[in-house]
Amino acid sequence: MILGTIAGALSGGLTDYFISNGPSATPEVSATDVSAITSAIPTRTIEPTPPPIMTATPIKSTPTVLPVADDSGTSLADVVAQAGKAVVTVVNEQAGGFFGSSDLETAGTGFIIDDQGHVITNNHVVAGSQEITVIFADGTEQKAMLLGADSFADLAFVKIDGPVPATLPFGNSDSLRPGDRVVAIGSALGDFTNTVTEGIISALNRSLQTSDGYNMENMLQHDAPINLGNSDGPLLSLDGDVVRVNTAVVRQAEPRVTAEGLG
Annotated catalytic, 115? Predict the structure, then answer.
């Protein structure tokens, strides 16, 4: 098509040329006439424009040091420092020896929820207790009284008297999604108080079968490392709000399969 168009144009052009330049079409123009016509055409001299002079300016870069922060821009260390004041160690003393002597002691974690001294902990932390002691983050100890417990939810309330160092607010766990970051604080192994670990929400609405033969429902699975003694330590959002309570960790899925990161 392109070649046909070009050929047509050339053919038409040549036909026009021969028609307009045939015999007696136009008078002949002498070389003198051509010279006179061209000398009458004004001419313009174009002077080249010199290129602009480029001056190189070095770019100064100042390194920016960013603080370790959570997703909202708040320092995670600041969140932990404030929340940790309300996390306590809960010690359960039980009578197990001769003449009712208190020779059995277990320890878990709890956290203060209001100025009246109410503390949430796990039921299995305080079950069978004869005396409960709460140890604050600064090492101060105070006796506590068991107010009530729910074995199916594995939760218990104890109360301490006197002023409290801090309280923890509740957040909305319904807004959590797999992948959201969370922080756990607890007395790992009973001795490593206020141990801080971080992880993400791994799954929602998990069911966990207990040794008593019933299932705990609507649980959150996360991978923040927790150990014995972390029981009922708070699971915090990055805003410092309690979104759940650490209750259990799965160490073994089957008799010979070791599991990791299942809290």
Answer: no
First to last CA, the chain: 74
**Which of helix, strand or coil describes residue 188?**
strand
pLDDT in tens, 52-98: 554 544 544 444 444 444 455 568 899 999 999 999 999 999 876 55
Beta bridge partners of 208: 216
Amino acid at position 180, single letter: D
How many angstroms from the chain centroid is the CA of residue 184?
14
Burial class of residue 8 (count of CB atoms within 10 Å of its CB; 0-12, 13-18, 19+): exposed
Contact indicator for 182, 200 with CB cutoff of 8 Å? yes
Q: Is 222 a catalytic residue?
A: no
Tokens of 76: 């995670």
pLDDT tens-digit profile of 149-190? 998 899 999 999 999 999 999 999 999 999 999 999 999 988
Q: How far is the CA of 126 from the CAs of 20, 121, 123, 146, 189, in angstroms? A: 117, 8, 6, 8, 16
Catalytic residue, from 118, 154, 187, 232: name it: 154
